[in-house]
Design a protein that fits this description.
By secondary structure, the chain is an alpha/beta fold. The chain folds into two domains: 136 residues, 2-Layer Sandwich (Nucleotidyltransferase, domain 5), CATH 3.30.420.40; 152 residues, Hexokinase, domain 1. It contains 14 helices and 13 strands.
Length: 348
């Protein structure tokens, strides 16, 4: 059994982290008799981090001084590709590298685990309460599960039931980086626009359209044909550098923002359909990520489900797949702690 889990009844603290392209989130999780409590939460813009080891060391020293808590376990979820017992990773869309040996040396903590951020989501979904059922379909017991989420990037993972452990086993995926498949002239023109912006000749990925940057590209692309009159809102968006938060803020008031979100929702539904079919996710398709959590209304629109089930051969199957929206942004922090529980039980 892993150090720190030897006495299951002993209260101890795990430092968990979720390193995304926009924000680095940290939390102190109290774990006692299978209960998980987020004791404290810290956030820092990811782009401000130059040396992650130093950032983590400073946080640990701050917590020790203010709360008199020391850690024996740290679990870090990172947006990036991990394979096996990898000890070093450069997060997607970020300039710094995480090195496990360096982190252990700087922090003095011997049990440090670096995992994919959507493994954290697959581990933590059942520990948060703020989850909304989009289509009110019951979950098939022990059915396979899929998790997706757009934010700075596009995350994806799966979970399959183990009869041996009576537990879901999380599985990582980099499906968000698979090729985007354009269907019509609008899609093809958008692809060309993005390729020009990114200075690339290779096919674009789903992440190029289904992320914060993707929403910005759709909005910019729509503005090329001058169909939309300039408004105070559009001028504010232009001045911000087309920040996705501004586009989201005015999605119900500005026509161009509204149209950008409609295309964005179409792509979200198409990608959700693709993942749901790949996983045969009768145990549920769970949508996480900052953009979805902040825009619950767009999933309450029946348009999403119409697009999600729009399929020639498998419409009936798609209509039976439960779809959920995870609104608790701390799901990855809880998931990091639960990942350690799975390790301690020998599940992973």
């Amino acid at each position: 059994m892993l150090q720190g889990m030897e006495d299951a009844k002993k209260l101890f603290h795990i430092l968990v982290a979720d390193i995304g392209g926009t924000n680095a989130n940290f939390g102190i999780i109290d774990l006692m008799q299978g209960e998980y409590k987020l004791l404290e939460y810290y956030k820092q813009p990811s782009q401000e981090i130059v040396n992650f080891s130093k950032t983590l060391q400073d946080l640990i020293e701050k917590i020790a001084a203010e709360r008199h808590i020391r850690f024996s376990v740290i679990v870090i979820g990172v947006a990036g590709f991990l394979c096996g017992k990898q000890h070093s990773i450069k997060p997607t869309n970020l300039p710094f590298t995480l090195n496990k040996s360096d982190l252990m040396r700087v922090t003095g903590v011997s049990e440090i685990f670096i995992i994919n951020d959507f493994i954290s989501v697959a581990c933590g979904y059942h520990l948060v309460e703020n989850t909304f059922s989009i289509n009110q379909i019951p979950i098939k017991q022990h059915g396979q599960k899929a998790f997706i989420g757009a934010g700075t990037g596009l995350g994806q993972s799966y979970a399959v039931w183990s009869n041996t452990f009576k537990e879901y086993i999380p599985m990582a995926s980099e499906g968000g980086h698979t090729d985007f498949a354009p269907r019509d002239s609008f899609d093809h023109e958008l692809v060309s626009f993005i390729q020009e912006k990114e200075i690339m000749t290779l096919p674009i990925s789903w992440e190029n359209v289904l992320s914060g940057k993707g929403l910005r590209y759709i909005y910019e692309f729509l503005g090329q044909n001058n169909r939309y009159r300039a408004t105070e809102m559009s001028r504010e968006i232009d001045q911000s550098g087309f920040k996705p938060d501004y586009i989201s803020r005015y999605s119900e008031y500005d026509e161009r923002c509204k149209q950008a979100f409609r295309y964005y929702l179409t792509y979200y539904a198409r990608y959700a359909q693709q993942v749901a079919l790949q996983a045969v996710a009768c145990g549920g398709l769970y949508i996480a990520g900052g953009i979805a959590a902040k825009n619950k209304k767009m999933f309450q629109d029946n348009y999403f489900l119409i697009q999600f089930t729009n399929h020639t051969k498998h419409k009936t199957l798609l209509e039976k797949i439960p779809v959920f929206l995870i609104q608790d942004y701390q799901v990855s922090l809880y998931g990091g702690a639960y990942y350690y529980t799975l390790l301690s039980r020998g599940v992973l």
